[in-house]
């Protein structure tokens, strides 16, 4: 689920104490400290350098949007990785076989034959090895 700009604006306003529309290193350090994330001045400078897209020394709304969207993508990849491991965990081979797909679907209450599972895998099997690697699984899950 994507955050809309009003959500990003609310985050910006929370950190932007002087109301200038940007988060200074001082504001970031102070607010993170209040939230229990105590950072030293050098750590804040490095963080600002990493997150500040236009190099002005402040975090703007656009910088926050980029950071939050990137975090969302990382979370989505982590979730896909966990789902991949659920299908993979019975054999731990690093890919999904028709048998492991059938077993996981069965655990989820969906009964499929080995032939149906083979056909499902075949549809997303880009390299033709009869198995789903993580990349192929991610494509399947995004359909």
Automatic annotation (TrEMBL):
InterPro entries: EF-hand-dom_pair, EF_Hand_1_Ca_BS, EF_hand_dom, EF_hand_pair_protein_CML-like. The keyword GTP-binding does not apply. CDD domains: EFh. It comes from the Eukaryota. Keywords: Calcium, Metal-binding, Repeat. One of its GO terms (molecular function) is calcium ion binding. The keyword RNA-binding does not apply. SMART domains: EFh. Residues 3-38, 39-74, 112-143 form the EF-hand domain. This is EF-hand domain-containing protein. It comes from Phaseolus vulgaris (Kidney bean).
